[in-house]
Design brief:
The protein contains eleven helices and 13 strands. The protein is α/β, with parallel strands linked by helices and 295 residues long. The chain has a seven-stranded mixed β-sheet, sandwiched between helices.
Length: 295
């Protein structure tokens, strides 16, 4: 079990729940502490482990999932770069996962692997609370991967009038736009090749790429393209203050960091793993406490 790093101490007499996060370069993740603190508050012996693909390059994603299942875990969270691969692996997928085209939570059950997408709900909640009243007439979305799919469908459901999707892989942007339009029943999304031109007409922009992470620094949008009338959201949460958000704030833009999405998607995943309803505000406190501990 060398690929699993246990994030807890000695087990107690409470009901034990073991889950894990599978991804690449996930050592700084705050998700384990959020889950474990909430599990303790609700009376569980809750163990959250890390399965970092970088630590076991000889194992493919499917092998990592199988190792977690055989070890008796309740399920796994899935992060970059495996969310789309996870959809192809599960035996059953929720409506949200099928619609988004990605899975970020797999529950192991007697019926097999059940795939869910909690990013979709998490981003919608983050927008409602973090940028209430933000204009969604025209929105630029940078990134058409697994996270981008969740964000795109969330924006459509939140009432976006026009969604301009940019990705380095033009075919991915085109495919996501078609999927959003099919699900929405109306033509609101389209591929965007020139981010500058798109921002000229946009009310806001969302980064749904990993650019801005501690191990992938930079900004997916040229800061000079931002105007104070824009709102700017980022799904990256390590660090919370990405280069994009720092530049946006400096230019007078309203901003939304990736912390809220991380908290809300974690709360929904916790419920799927345990069947218990978590306290999202308590999980928010754990998230920020973890940030202070690693600052």
């Amino acid at each position: 079990m060398g690929t699993i790093r246990d994030m807890t101490g000695t087990a107690g007499s409470a009901t034990t729940v073991r889950v894990a996060l599978i991804g690449r370069g996930i050592g700084p993740s705050r998700t384990p502490r959020m889950h474990m603190a909430e599990g303790a508050a609700l009376g569980f012996d809750y163990r959250y482990e890390l399965m970092d693909a970088e630590a076991s390059p000889e194992l493919c994603f499917e092998q990592l999932v199988d190792r977690a299942r055989v070890a008796g875990l309740a399920g796994v969270n899935v992060t970059y770069p495996f969310k789309r691969e996870a959809l192809a692996l599960v035996d059953r997928a929720s409506d949200a996962a099928r619609r988004v085209g990605a899975v970020n939570t797999i529950v192991f059950s007697e019926r097999g692997l059940e795939g869910h997408n909690t990013d979709y709900w998490g981003f919608a909640q983050a927008m409602r609370q973090g940028l209430p009243g933000a204009s969604l007439d025209t929105v630029v979305l940078v990134g058409a991967g697994g996270a981008g799919g969740a964000v795109a469908h969330s924006l459509a459901d939140l009432g976006a009038g026009r969604l301009l999707i940019h990705d380095r892989d033009a075919a991915s942007a085109e495919g996501l736009a078609e999927a959003v339009n099919a699900a929405a029943g109306r033509a609101i999304a389209e591929r965007l090749d020139d981010v500058g031109a798109g921002l000229g007409a946009a009310d806001g922009v969302v980064n749904a790429t990993p650019v801005g992470m501690a191990k992938l620094p930079g900004s997916p949008v040229e800061p000079s393209l931002l105007d104070p009338r824009h709102w700017v959201a980022d799904i990256v949460y390590f660090p919370l203050e990405t280069e994009l958000l720092a530049a946006a704030r400096a230019r007078g833009c309203a901003t939304l960091d990736g912390g809220r999405m991380a908290i809300f998607q974690a709360a929904r995943a916790f419920e799927l793993f345990t069947g218990a309803t978590p306290d999202a505000e308590r999980m928010r406190a754990s998230f920020h406490a973890a940030a202070e501990a690693t600052a």
